[in-house]
Amino acid sequence: MAWFVSARTCPIQSMFNPQASFIRSPPNWHLARVFGNPLFCNAIPSNPPISREVSQEVFKNIPWSLNSENYWPSKEAIATWRDADAVCFDFDSTVCLDEGIDELAVFCGAGAEVAEWTAKAMTGLVEFEEALAARLSLFKPSLDQVENCLEQRPPRISPGISELIGKLKAKNVDVYLISGGFRQMIKPVALELGIPPDNIFANQLLFGTSGGYVGFDPKEPTSRSGGKAVAVQHIRQKRGYKTLVMIGDGATDLEARQPGGADMFICYGGVQMRESVARKADWVVSDFHELMIQLS
Ligand SMILES: [Mg+2]
């Protein structure tokens, strides 16, 4: 009989939190990708947002960003942000710096094979559920491996996210996590950020009685293509929110902005900046402090 692994507390890393006792330095590729790219010049949390003039200078060599006015929020976008009574965050490469399934695959020794499938899935030519099943079948993570991965490679929280969520909660804004990743890997971070388990919409890994991998729960909407949009619509319908905002880095996050779903989509490019997503966003940020400032 399949059973669900219960979440347990594990060390959570905050790259810029001096109080954190477990700090895993970002690998070199991440430093190169984030800090070597002018798009991420604003990614260090202690820096104030750059001015429009500086930004135009920085962005001038990046053709697609030349006319990207959505780097500068419209009055309507700011008003929607301030009026929001619910904010839904994507998890991988948004709340956290890593992609959970990739981290788990690397830990289980199948990083390269899974990365190949991830690249295939990103083309949009493969249904999400097919890509998820294919990737998991490559390494079939056991309960022990998931728990050991969480212990030895704890998720790294994005700079500024803890403060932003704290500020939203102080304003009585409800915060949700919507992810194609796994509840087992998200719950410890949610606990750290003060987000209730009921506010997590994600996939559930299933294990047999001896802890072996048996699959994932296909009833979770996030296990299917378009699932994040369905989850956001469900939240809105159930809780009757007046204004709901979705924040993320991927095309599936952008999909959540539709009638009955999110009123606004904010593209967070602090980890991964995807041109196709950023172009269609209502607002593009590379630092959560930009959002915090506009809440005041
Ligand atoms: Mg993401």
UniProtKB/TrEMBL annotation:
It holds the Pfam family Hydrolase. Transmembrane segments: none annotated. GO terms for biological process: L-serine biosynthetic process. GO terms for cellular component: chloroplast. GO terms for molecular function: L-phosphoserine phosphatase activity; magnesium ion binding. InterPro entries: HAD-like_SerB, HAD-like_sf, HAD_sf. NCBIfam families: HAD-SF-IB (TIGR01488). PANTHER family: PHOSPHOSERINE PHOSPHATASE. This is O-phosphoserine phosphohydrolase. It comes from Eragrostis curvula (weeping love grass).
